[in-house]
Amino acid sequence: MIRTTSLEAKTRLDDLIDAALRGEDVLMTVSDEHGERVVRVVAISDEEHRQRRRKAGSAKGTVWMSDDFDEPLDDFKNYQ
Questions:
Q1: Which residues lie closer than 8 Å to 24 by C-beta, 6 or more apart?
Q2: Rounded CA gap, 43 and 80, in Å?
Q3: Whether residue 52 has pLDDT greater than 70
Q4: pTM (2 decimals)?
């Protein structure tokens, strides 16, 4: 396990990324106005990365609108 501070991590980022890719636990302590917090640097697989990518047009044909979509609603006739 590698423990480091965010300040130190700025100078060792390449080493920390390599360690995470090898499967080591990389923990980073971050101090800010909320106090001291810990974050974990983890590598994700190519499969996880591909699953998160969006594809334009993938929902084509699954969404529809009725022909009277823009027509005034009967419930709001009193407000016109």
A1: 1, 2
A2: 58
A3: no
A4: 0.52
Question: Which domain CATH number covers 25?
Answer: 3.40.1620
Edge-to-edge strand ranges of the sheet holding 26-32 = 2-5, 26-32, 35-41
Distances (CA, A) of 80 to 4, 34, 68, 72: 64, 51, 18, 9
Q: Domain limits at 31?
A: 1-44
Q: How far is CA 56 from its chain centroid?
A: 18
- On whether residue 20 sits in a domain, the answer given is yes
Residues 41 and 17: beta-carbon distance below 8 Å: yes
